[in-house]
Design a protein that fits this description.
The chain has 404 residues and is an alpha+beta fold. Strand 2 and strand 3 form a beta hairpin. The protein binds fe (ii) ion.
Length: 404
């Protein structure tokens, strides 16, 4: 028997089993999510907004149930300074009216949070019909009463877990598809909650709880008093959109050196483009544990000491594969944390990735030397920096110096 039970791990299993594999709503009170996420993560996301190239798409501020673009711009310039006090910051920023702050695809704004969630989330999905889904992080904070979206179904989402930080209680009104159709006569978003509230199943979600919202349920949330929460949701896109995305990913990845793609590239059948694009997207998703990658840059700081030991971050496998975008020219791609690097075919690279994938620890010097068997020193250095700066590997805290 394992004497050191991991409270978060057992709570995640309880969530999976209690929801019959993510198919039934459930509230689990006193969910030990403090080690994984908290108010400080939301503050960090708001601070990261100003530098994100798509910041306008990631933030929505509602004041008195209307979206307020002016307030969104003010948030970019005046995010919360500390890792707490979100309510006071909001009241200060948005005044006495009811307000709501929503962040979309928040994994882009807080890669460390995505790292903490990745392992538990893999456990949550394991063995369910959503095992191979990617996932996104949303944030809600505010006191805006009923969410301004009406009673709706999230068509492109699988199951979602609301990690409710509080302090206020959140209430969820829920309908199965059948119950919603019976109550409203259809499946369109419905804005008159009082008219159908008595047909809903209502779930009270106190601070510190996790709530599982399964795919296909109609719902609306309500927060009379200020509260904040972080939601992780599986993504289930319709096949037609997945094909579109695969083709555009294929076209993005053509190695054209800034020129128009040539006739050979464009003469491939649609099926080939979809197949290749899908292979690329799958490798990106797997290597980042289902999250879309955050933007990153290769840093120009000094390299680590040659003796520093590294290991792969456990939830994020490296993928090395030929992806045919370069037309079988002997190139292969290395995927680390959802980022793709195309390189000449190399046994040394494949071996290095295999060893890191077994969670072997290697020194910086070892990794470079192994790659230098087949790459120029600059290229070997660049590949190691790519692994480090995407956060695919981390220093273990031990090193290999002869003198200790
Ligand atoms: Fe929703």
């Amino acid at each position: 028997m394992n004497e050191h039970v991991d409270p978060l791990g057992s709570a995640i299993l309880q969530l999976r089993e209690g929801s019959a594999g993510l198919t039934r709503p459930i509230v689990i009170e006193s969910f030990p999510f403090d080690a994984m996420l908290g108010e400080g993560d939301i503050c960090a996301m708001l601070r990261a907004l100003s530098d994100h190239p798509q910041r306008e798409l990631l933030l929505r501020i509602f004041i008195g149930a209307r979206q307020c673009f002016q307030s969104e711009r003010r948030v970019f310039d005046n995010p919360p300074e500390g890792d707490g006090g979100l309510e006071a910051w909001g009241t200060d920023m948005f005044g006495p009216d009811r307000w709501g702050c929503t962040l979309y695809r928040a994994e882009q704004l807080n890669p460390l949070l995505a790292e903490r969630i990745a392992g538990p989330w893999k456990t949550l999905k394991a063995g369910t019909t959503e095992e191979n889904c990617g996932q996104e992080i949303f944030v809600f904070a505010g006191n805006y009463g009923k969410t301004p979206f009406g009673v709706h179904e999230d068509k492109e989402q699988g199951a979602a877990v609301h990690f409710h930080i509080g302090p206020g209680v959140k209430r969820m009104y829920m309908w199965t598809r059948e119950a919603f159709e019976a109550a409203t006569g259809g499946t369109s978003t419905f804005y008159d909650l009082p008219a159908i509230a008595d047909t809903a199943e209502v779930f009270e979600i106190p601070a510190g709880s996790a709530f599982l919202l399964p795919a296909g349920w109609f719902h609306i949330g309500e927060t009379e008093d200020y509260s904040a929460g972080i939601v992780v949701t599986n993504v289930r896109l319709p096949e037609a959109r997945l094909r579109d995305m695969a083709v555009s990913r294929y076209l993005d990845c053509l190695d054209t050196d800034g020129d128009e793609p040539d006739d050979d590239d464009l003469s491939r059948t649609l099926g080939e483009m979809i197949g290749t694009g899908r292979r690329i997207r799958d490798a990106e998703r797997v290597s980042n544990a289902g999250f879309s990658p955050a933007p990153f840059e290769i840093g120009d700081g000094p390299d680590p000491d040659a003796e520093t030991r590294f290991r792969r971050r456990a939830a994020f496998p490296l993928v090395v594969q030929e992806d045919a975008v370069s037309g079988g020219s002997g190139a292969m791609s290395l995927y680390a944390r959802g980022n793709r690097l195309t390189l000449p075919e190399s046994l040394a690279l494949q071996d290095l990735a295999d060893d890191l994938n077994t969670l072997e620890t290697l020194t910086w010097g070892d990794m470079r030397a192994r790659l230098e068997a087949e790459f120029e020193p600059d290229a070997a250095d660049f590949i190691c920096r790519f692994l480090l700066d995407t956060r695919a590997i981390e220093a273990t805290g031990e090193d290999d110096r002869a003198d200790d």
